[in-house]
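User: Hello! My lab partner asked me to get a predicted holo structure for this protein. The small molecule is flavin-adenine dinucleotide, SMILES included with the sequence. Please write out the structure tokens.
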Amino acid sequence: MADERASPESKIYFPQSLAELLQVHRRDPDALIWAGGTFILSQRTGRFAELPATVVSLQDVEELERISRTERYLELGAMVPLRQIIRLGPQNVPRALYDALRHIGPPAVAGLATLGGNLAVAGRIMTAIPVLTLLDARAELRRQGGARWLPVGRVHRADGSVDLQPYEIITRIRVPLYPWTAQVFRRFGSELSPDSDPLTFCGLARTSNRILEELRIVGSAGHPRLLRNKSMEAELVGRRLPLPDREVRQAIETYGEPGHELSSIQRDRFRRLARWFLLSLR
Ligand SMILES: Cc1cc2nc3c(=O)[nH]c(=O)nc-3n(C[C@H](O)[C@H](O)[C@H](O)COP(=O)(O)OP(=O)(O)OC[C@H]3O[C@@H](n4cnc5c(N)ncnc54)[C@H](O)[C@@H]3O)c2cc1C
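Assistant: Hello! Below are the structure tokens for the protein in complex with flavin-adenine dinucleotide.
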């Protein structure tokens, strides 16, 4: 049975296993899922957080804290604290993801914050999502009696809501391990403060014998729509390196199209980073 501790305002459940968690969540699909609590607490307006009638804490669910690695994948339980993932080091975690996680909050936050929580913030694309999207990571969603895998880039719908069915929980994130030869992550501002013109940039490339064999570039201003141009990426694949400055300029121009709700600062930063990344490829 769940360890049920009552507070004057909210009932808080502490399920002890995944099966119990899914059962409790099925009983009360409107309950607030509490992972590390760092985002939830960052949104409070007064001294204390205003919690709904029922809260389900994931802290005692051991199945959500597992990490495994094969030659092809790194699998991270939704409740593994970011600090623990960072401690695996860049030899075990794709470099761009490792760098992205090191940007999330001060050390006290990284000790509590989880990857599941980073994916599940409604209305905002948090720091890890653009990188996980480029890496083709998938999230496992579980409910009582069923499971499905969703590409991380599709966890948020176009309107920013999270594509979780009632009773579903993010249980683990599977990150393919691919031999990228160039991985770059940069971040300006913070998704927590839209006034800071936040911009997350990630570039991935595989090169061999001075030929560009694979290329992926993404930018995010925290909105549901990521800045990515797959046809431009495909056009540059197969080219000899270094890329001529003229071709890079033309490629960057394709990011000028409207419809991405970027400020001029965000767009300018993104273009400069994309240009620098493309010119640096060898
Ligand atoms: C000082 C500070 C700085 C920060 N800086 C950054 C930053 O730079 N970049 C950034 O991305 N974030 C930042 N954050 C926000 C936050 O720390 C991270 O986004 C973190 O990864 C959230 O994880 P959590 O476990 O604390 O989530 P929680 O706060 O517990 O939950 C976040 C949301 O996800 C839902 N949820 C959590 N886990 C699951 C699950 N397994 N299945 C389904 N739903 C779930 C919760 O119900 C809630 O809606 C910062 C926070 C603070 C306090």
